[in-house]
Amino acid sequence: MDRFDVCIAGAGVVGLALAYQLLRTFPKASVLLVEQEPSFGQHTSSRLSEVIHAGIYYPPGSLKAKLCIEGKAALYEFCDRFQVPYRKVGKLIISQSDSDQALVSLGRNARLNGINDLEYWPEDLIKSAEPAVRAKHALFSPSTGIVDSHQYMTALLHLSEQRGLVYAPRTKVTSVHPLEQGFILDMIINNGRNTELYAPKAKWFINCAGLWSHQLAKTIENLPASCIPRRFLCKGDYFDYRGENPFRRLIYPLPDPEMAGLGIHSTQDLAGRLKFGPDAEYVDEIDYRVASNKRDMFAKAIRSYFPALKADKLSPAYSGVRPKISGPSEKPGDFLITGPEESGISGLIQLFGIESPGLTASLSIGVHIAHLINQRSI
Predict the structure, then answer these.
(1) Are residues 341 and 265 part of one domain?
(2) 82 is a domain residue
(3) Are residues 267 and 317 in the same domain?
(4) Helices then strands (H, E): number in the chain?
(5) Is 121 exposed, middle or buried (0-12, 13-18, 19+ CB in 10 A)?
(6) Is 12 inside any structural domain?
């Protein structure tokens, strides 16, 4: 029977960053990273805005705030060190109201999170810096950026494999059996032509399966049902803009009060190609089709800050689905990272509700979990 110190289920951006950080912290550890898809980052991690967030929106003291801010610094440092393409384009959060109280409140929240670089922009400065934007007031975040998320994930994987990571795509964990020390992990390996069973042992098991974390948790023997939170799927569609990008920065409306999403904003890739999204819609199943009949709704929302937009230049691009632990009309949920104390199962760590800013926070999530393990050592 193969034995590992740690098995991580799920090779999205967080699973990859976790493997990287664990192997930095415990250089002699044996780490197995399994992924049910043929390649890494096939779902939430590759269906997002690729924005490096500043940490403005999240409640002070929350894991999202702490890990976003720590992760932002770590991610920029990682990209510089390993030549992962990124750009600090900055972000304008705009208001159409004659009163800027919502922006003042958002700025106050950012300061409570330790963010002190935001700038207040009046209408004349917005017009000068971003002539295509219509807004009364704005907050400018200079530390917001964009990153090539695929190259980032590729770098994490290659660096981890150099340190001894065993990476197993097309491998699905079907059941988890806790022992007095460690786990037996039932898996199915599917190479596209046939399947085989595999059952390694691991001292630590980390459920980092993203959209499937809840489903995987239900296969863990003797795990109390109270340790599995509710799961809500929130879908966001994106539309490409087939025209010249008029913006130098990312343009965000004020977030909707319930924070299901951050509003239909403008973002861009490293080549400057413009896209808009995502919207936010709670759904019952994972479906990545983009409804082309949403174009007029997108155009109406975008024209509130980009009045020159022509709807016929919008075309369906892609969609993503977030694994939320809060439902419609509920307060936004925090990241939920649980260890052995919560489940009563030695060596078990689980991650739920890892949505935005998961990309930004990925390296700091890895450090956070390394500290959980370090309390007991590998």
Answers:
(1) no
(2) no
(3) yes
(4) 9, 21
(5) buried
(6) yes
Angle at the Cα of 43 from the Cα atoms of 14 and 364, rounded to 5 degrees: 15
CA distance 58 to 348: 27
Residue-wise pLDDT tens digits, 255-313: 866 545 678 999 999 999 999 999 999 999 999 999 889 999 999 999 999 999 999 99
Backbone angles phi, psi at 141, to 5 degrees: -110, 105
Same domain, 242 and 304: yes
Q: Is residue 83 a part of any domain in this protein?
A: no
pTM of the model: 0.96
Q: Say if residue 138 is in the same domain as residue 170.
A: no
Question: Residue 360 maps to which CATH number?
Answer: 3.50.50.60
C-alpha–C-alpha distance, residues 240 and 312, integer Å: 11
CA–centroid distance for 221 within its chain: 28
Residue 176 CB neighbour total at 10 angstroms: 25
Verify that 155 and 104 share a domain, yes or no. Answer: no
| C-alpha span between 42 and 62 (Å, rounded) | 28
Q: What are phi and psi of 199, to 5 degrees?
A: -140, 75
Question: Tens of pLDDT along 118-131?
Answer: 999 999 999 999 99
The whole domain housing 108 covers 91-142+232-324
Nearby residues of 51 by Cβ (< 8 Å), 6 or more positions away? 91, 144, 145, 146, 250, 267, 359, 360
Give the chain's domain count: 2
At 216, phi and psi to the nearest 5?
Answer: -65, -40
Question: d(Cα 316, Cα 289) in Å, to the nearest integer?
Answer: 9
Q: Helix H segments across the chain?
A: 13-25, 63-82, 101-112, 123-129, 149-162, 213-217, 295-303, 340-343, 358-374
